[in-house]
Write a structure and sequence with these properties.
The chain contains six helices and nine strands, in the order αββαβαβαβαββββα. By secondary structure, the chain is α+β, with helices and mostly antiparallel strands.
Length: 176
């Protein structure tokens, strides 16, 4: 019987079961209850049922990459709506921070506040990250397309911002 190398063994035990965002594809999306940029409480069930949902997790309001991504989704919103979906962003920022971000960039979709990262953890996007040799926990930029039935149809892990809104729109059109 072949033995596993230390690397192979540690890879499998590094993450608890279900902690990988891509493992959600084809499964029921984890439920959540979060506050939006207008102070309203929103649950996953409020966002599904009549439309598909583009749920994207991003690290931080007002940062260059997150601003570029949000503005690209803002500019693509009408095309995404025509494809039968809506967009919602999620980060650990406060409701007040989301409100400022929304107003500064005229964002036309809800931003949900996940300050304790419960939703990010449930979706497997709260991970160890590193920047300039420093390790820390944070949200890995990830997008989920969730069907009207609440099932995760597609996961875009480790998103590169450039061209991402177009990738999401193309995926929505393929699902029709």
């Amino acid at each position: 019987m072949p033995t596993k190398s230390k690397t192979e063994s540690s890879r499998k035990t590094a993450k608890p079961a279900g902690a990988d965002s891509t493992s959600l594809e084809g499964r029921k999306a984890p439920d959540f209850q979060l506050v939006d940029d207008r102070g309203r409480t929103v649950r996953l069930a409020d966002l599904t049922g009549s439309k598909d949902l583009v749920l994207y997790f991003y690290p931080k309001d007002m940062t260059p990459g997150c601003t570029t991504e949000a503005c690209a989704f803002r500019d693509s919103l009408e095309a995404i709506r025509r494809a039968g979906a809506q967009i919602v962003g999620v980060s650990g920022d406060s409701q007040a921070s989301h409100e400022k971000f929304r107003d500064k960039y005229d964002l036309n979709f809800p931003l949900l506040s996940d300050p304790d990262n419960r939703a990010a953890k449930a979706y497997g996007v709260y991970k160890k990250k590193s920047l300039y040799g420093r390790e820390f926990m944070g949200i890995e930029r990830t997008t989920f397309i969730i069907g009207k039935d609440g099932v995760v149809r597609k996961v875009f892990p480790k998103v590169k911002v450039a061209g991402h809104a177009e990738q999401v729109l193309a995926a929505l059109k393929e699902m029709d």
